[in-house]
Amino acid sequence: MGTWRYGVILDAGSSGTRVHIYRWLNSDTARKSASKAQLQSLPEIETDKQWTKKIHPGISTFGEHPHDVGPEHLEKLFAHALSVVPAAEVPKTPIFLLATAGMRILPPVQRKTVLKEVCDFARKTTKFQLPDCDLHIQVIPGETEGLYGWIAANYLLGGFDSPKDHDHGKDHHTYGFLDMGGASAQIAFAPNATEAEKHADDLTLLRLRRVGGDPLEYKVFVTTWLGFGVNQARERYVKAMLEASPGAKEYPDPCMPSGAEILVADNGKVVEEKKGAKGHKVVGTGIFKECVRQTYPLLEKEKECLDAPCLINGQHTPAIDFDVNHFVGVSEYYHTTHEIFKMAHKDDENYDFKSYQKAVDKFCGKSWKQITQGVDKHKFGKKVDVEKALEVCFKSSWLINVLHDGIGVPRIGLEDLNSANNVTKAKTHKGKDKGYLNPFQAVNKINDIEVSWTLGKMVLYASSEVPPPSTDALAVGFGSNEPGIPSDFQHPGGSYTSHGATGDDWHDHLFSENPRRIPGFLIFVLILFIFGFILCGRDRRKATLHKFSRMFGAGGSSGGSRSRRRGPGFPGKLFGLRSSNTPLYERVLEDGPSSAHSDFELGSYSDVSATASDNDHSDSGDGGKTATRFGRSSGWATPSIKGGSAGGGGGGVLSEDDIMAQGVGLGLGMGRGGGFLGRSDSGEGLAVRSRASSPRRKGVGGRLHD
């Protein structure tokens, strides 16, 4: 087992799939070199921007032709992962594909077939550790996605490892998490002590483990709003517009710049512009304040709240105490405030509602001709294209409504901080130098590492590999807020394996997932036996064959005599024995030269481009090549590490064809150096255990069932 442990996660979203690769020191190595502070921290996860790769579209588009998802979609992502993970570590590296909103809305039969194809393709073409498809390849609920995001944000901000440095008051040191994608939005936070006790049945119990073995336990509220992501909110908005004026020749839209025109279908989706295209004509008027007013009803706050308090869509949420709950927002919260508007183009600039609304109003008041000219001249940045410029006015209005009227974030710069609905008092500070203590701050990276829910999943997995301090220690994972291990507890899949382990129990898991491997394994053993027999020397072959002939002859010594008179027979011909009267030696040569078995030895496979170094703590380069800067953060100070390829080796770079050739053929994964993942009969979802109208009751918790 090497110094480093690796993990691969594929984030299968609605618009595309992105592969993330992470690594961390194995538990034994980390403990040997850890300071006292580091022993009280979570495992330190490393990644690099070069270790990620995204391709389009999402795997949900393969619902009607699932057999193409491997060669047309996954192959490039697997090739990228194999170019980063050292070849020797691949069989010990767990791989996960966790799908989100796009796959959630796919018909159950199609969803199941696509996931099966993903698992089969991964097993056939790579040697990554994949013992349990139900655990490793699945659609995760929005709540699980939100919980992973909450873990990632607090891990990077230091809320877990350095609680004293993040004291928000009232014995509270964690941060809230907001995420908004195209189809759904999530919120996750640890309520203050009063709210946590009042709404205990609505919380999720999360347990982690520090490098030194001590447990960390948190009670987190998390919920998701499916249909409240920016793209589906836009479709609901357009459908409402069409229904309000059926049969109109054109529809004025204040959420598009003046002069912009598009065609939309009855379902609210934009119709691609081409000859003969049919749809409803929508014309922009560019009145942003009216856009904010017309998008407010999409929050559906008029729905009955059966379990007060509620935020959006009548879903119960404990009251948010903005005095201690400070939120970071990712994905669209970041892109919509940063990609065009200079107000918040730096992370250390606070989100200020008054300044932001002023910037958006100015942009959306321009004519479409002026905006397209600005896009052509990269006035709004190189990443901004015409499509983003056309969508940003609606996205901004939706973000403002969700943040302030939906969640209740105070409108800094415009209103009294204590006037927001469903909140307590709040205070504001300047910049991230104060520890992100504002009610809301949009972020993309923290300490040069992207805030992604995939990082949260990997932190949980690495934490589960830390050896427990005692046999009765509680497991790492999450589930219902109950003492001990609740029935719906979700295990991340990792387990401790000592650094020097040789995999003595590999046979316990070898055929557990695929019994069809047994015939191939037996054939392989037989081939090894034949080659070993050929190379063991003529005398030993004669002696062995003689013993076999006596054991399986016609009977007793007479059978043996007849056998010798008839000549060597088929075995003799097979192994080149000639018929003669040369006496056969019956001794086994147990005390003979050791070379009889050592002459035959399987050579080790070597690939310079993927060779890992166990001494990656040095700052040495990669043989003249530009060193890659690793982002590292776990709450305690960690210097930058430079290295060559992922494992620290400085070899050449493989082509994609070479990489795939290297990964072809599912390995047996017999080495236990990295530890086989413990099987779990449960999925990754959050459990349903709450009062009668809480969001847990809506069937989103637990694994997504067909």
Automatic annotation (TrEMBL):
Which residues are recorded as binding ATP?
A: 182-186
Question: Among its keywords, does the record have Transmembrane?
Answer: yes
Show the segment(s) annotated as Disordered. 554-575, 611-649, 673-706
Name the Gene Ontology molecular function terms of this record: ATP binding; GDP phosphatase activity; ribonucleoside triphosphate phosphatase activity; UDP phosphatase activity
Superkingdom of origin: Eukaryota
Cite the Pfam families for this sequence.
GDA1_CD39
Q: Which family does it belong to?
A: Belongs to the GDA1/CD39 NTPase family.
Protein's name in the database:
Golgi apyrase
